[in-house]
Amino acid sequence: MTAPTPVPVSVSAPVPATDFASLFAEVKEATGRFGHREHVHLTWLAVRRLGVPAAADLIGDGIRGITLRAGVPEKFHATLTRAWVELVGRHAAGPDADDFARFLDRHPQLLDKELPARFYRPETLDSPRARAGWVEPDLAPFRTVSR
Fold first, then answer.
1. For the chain, what are the domain ranges?
2. Strands, DSSP E only, in 2-121?
């Protein structure tokens, strides 16, 4: 009996980054800025590489860390952060989701900063509870979000 032939392993293909700092740098390097579109891009990368639950933790911890280091921890909003991961995640598994530009062409509503307001009452999002932790939508459940 002969030993099985080992499968060659490619060392030339880089492993995609899955830590917050690397994802952040990857997105910022592409545009030189970090606005809403870049937040969506960061979230899309995390969801595509890690899945929604792990992306929610990674993005939440990363943004919370940024606000703490900047001395403005009150700017972190746990519900809005996770809501964006959930919203991007609803679309990131589709056939058009393998390229970020194509993904946004198909889902331009994700560029609307006010999108979470379709799912939450203002007083819910303004509450200390929503800032500190996850609160489920109270106007409509998250589903695939139409234009």
1. 20-132
2. none
